[in-house]
Write a structure and sequence with these properties.
By secondary structure, this protein is α+β, with helices and mostly antiparallel strands. The strands form five sheets. The chain has a four-stranded antiparallel sheet, sandwiched between helices. A two-stranded parallel ribbon has the order 1-9.
Length: 322
């Protein structure tokens, strides 16, 4: 067992130097009872949709020390992805997080660099593992527990005076640090803008997301046809949905990301509706090489395009009412 105690300030300084927007550290403990109970209730009600993996390894999801034996500290980092330039409103829309390269690859590279730096702080070999949306970890919980921000009513982590457009990642560390951070209280107050603006009312209450009605889930994770009720409410969204983030007052503080890998390509930004209608599988592979959009696959993206195109055509039919 590692007996060395590392400097939290040195770790945080290096995280910021590597380009992370925020860094905090929490002791590795079992997830608190309120969060564990809320997650289990959410899952038991089937609100995860067809994401069956959300029910896997429940014991490890609720106790990081079971996921990686010997873990004593959890470092949580956030990386800004708020775009400097957005797709024009009249064009088909993609979730902002998917504008650039796949965040898994970008985050893992930066986390690996942070992990390597941390190893130099210890005179003896140090146990550590890095994660970014790749293991049964309640990432937003640990970002909250490490003092980065609070979990808003739309279930997104909100960093004060920065907003919610952040990727999250963790370093599980097999030793302690000299100073741990503390959770922040919610500053959402009585605001319900995120709930009110959700196109499909998938946010059934504060912190209560019904995935089967969520356009992000339906356009990315869901396989098969889009349910008719939700499909008619897609607007011009063909990959993901940022409506609850756009409505959040805290995102008025968002600043453009400074990570070049997350910048959109010119080819992507120049796509017009007619280009999407004629998209071939080969064009899809070239346009989204190394992109998170490949999560939906070509079949899923073209399904979304056809749904939105059909909505447009239906709405453009002149009424016969007199």
């Amino acid at each position: 067992m590692d007996s060395v105690v590392l400097s939290a300030n040195l770790i945080k300084a290096e995280a910021l130097r590597l380009g992370f927007s925020a860094c905090g550290i929490a002791p590795a403990e079992r997830v608190n009872e309120a969060t564990a109970n809320a997650f289990c209730r959410w899952h038991s009600r089937g609100m995860q949709g067809k994401m069956d993996y959300m029910g896997n390894y429940l014991d490890k999801r609720l106790n990081p020390r079971l996921l990686v034996e010997g873990t004593r500290s959890i470092i949580s980092v956030a990386l800004n992805y708020y775009p400097a330039h957005r797709l024009r409103e009249e064009q088909y829309q993609f979730a902002w997080y998917a504008y650039g390269k796949d965040y898994h690859d970008v985050m893992k590279a930066k986390l690996g660099a942070l992990q390597a730096y941390i190893s130099t702080l210890s005179p003896t070999p140090l146990q550590s593992r890095v994660f970014c949306d790749t293991a049964p970890i309640l990432e937003r919980y640990w970002a909250w527990r490490a003092g980065l921000g609070w979990i808003g009513k739309n279930t997104q982590l909100i960093i004060p005076h920065a907003g919610s457009c952040f990727f999250l990642g963790e370093v599980f560390l097999g030793t302690e640090v000299d100073t741990y951070d503390h959770p922040q209280k919610s500053r959402c107050g009585n605001c319900t803008r995120c709930l009110d603006t959700c196109p499909t009312k998938a946010l059934e209450g504060p912190l209560l997301l019904n995935s089967e009605r969520c356009l992000s889930y339906l356009t990315i994770e869901h396989r098969g046809a889009i349910p008719p009720v939700e499909g008619k409410k897609m607007g011009n969204k063909i990959y993901g949905c940022d409506e609850c983030q756009k409505a959040c007052p805290w995102n008025k503080f968002a600043t453009p990301c400074q990570t070049p890998e997350l910048y959109p390509s010119d080819a992507f930004m120049q796509m017009k509706k007619e280009d999407w209608h004629a998209l071939t599988e080969e064009q899809y592979r070239i346009l989204f090489k190394g992109s998170a959009v490949k999560r939906a696959k070509y079949a899923g993206l073209t399904r979304n395009i056809h749904q939105v195109k059909g909505n447009d055509e239906t709405q453009s039919i002149p009424s016969t009412d007199k």
